[in-house]
Design a protein that fits this description.
Blueprint lengths: L5 H4 L3 H7 L4 E6 L2 E13 L26 E6 L2 E7 L6 E9 L7 H10 L10 H4 L3 H7 L4 H4 L9 E4 L7 E5 L15 E4 L20 E4 L8
Antiparallel strand pairs: 1-2, 1-6, 2-5, 2-8, 3-4, 4-5, 7-8, 7-9
């Protein structure tokens, strides 16, 4: 176990968002460890008009103003969404999507449990590719709920993010999704693992604005073009 510490999150939000790619979310559920590899994130800042924190401090948004590494969960269209606070009050990273992960700790049966937690509306079994490709689908597949984890810190016995030393060979940096016009919608604060781009919330390589993307090796400092 390589549980990410407070110091990992106590850095610039974009740095954290990028370096979370490849890390694995682990969640204990009925004596099993469910797991998903992070493939897409978004960074948000206090002064960013698209952020929740920009609307000001409230008890509901308290986690955004707490120490780095605090879990902030809220309802996106009525469904659970996972965020983590970073350095500086109001700054955070949204875990946008992930991909089911298997290893010695999280074996095949854990995938079946995730599929049972997050069935397709038709009643059919969701495919691996569709289990966690969205912030609310991710939370549902891992049984993560606002009522249980908002304003909490990670727990090595129940829910944590594991560094399994997966580093994307290339990273895509582009604009975030769902930001209303006039609320800093052009900021390039969305990061995607290039090898998993077809499984993220929305594949930017298939859009007309793909030329605005920056695709860079994991070791290269990214500057938006």
């Amino acid at each position: 176990m390589n549980l990410l510490s407070e110091s990992f999150f106590n850095r610039d939000a974009c740095t954290v968002a990028r370096e979370l790619l490849g890390k694995v979310i682990r969640r204990k559920y009925k004596q099993q460890w469910l797991a998903a590899r992070i493939i897409e994130t978004e960074a948000y800042y206090l002064e960013d008009k698209g952020s929740h924190a920009s609307l000001g401090f409230t008890e509901k948004r308290k986690a955004l103003f707490m120490q780095a590494g605090t879990i902030y969960m809220y309802y996106a269209h009525g469904r659970d969404s996972l965020n983590i606070s970073c350095r500086g009050k109001g700054n955070a990273v949204l875990i946008k999507s992930a991909f089911p992960y298997q290893d010695a700790l999280s074996e095949a049966l854990s995938i079946e449990s995730m599929q049972q937690l997050n069935p397709h509306p038709s009643g059919k079994t969701r495919s691996l590719e569709k289990l966690c490709n969205g912030q609310s689908l991710l939370c549902r597949s891992l049984n993560l709920k606002v009522t249980e984890w908002d304003q909490k810190t990670f727990d090595s016995q129940q829910f944590y993010i594991d560094d399994v030393h997966n580093v994307p060979e290339k990273t895509i940096q582009t604009t975030r999704l769902g930001i209303p016009k006039g609320r800093d919608e052009s900021l390039p604060y969305r990061f995607i693992d290039y090898d998993f781009v077809k499984y993220c919330t929305k594949n930017p390589l298939t859009t007309r604005t793909y030329q605005k993307l920056l695709i860079a090796p994991a070791t290269q400092k990214m500057v938006y073009q």
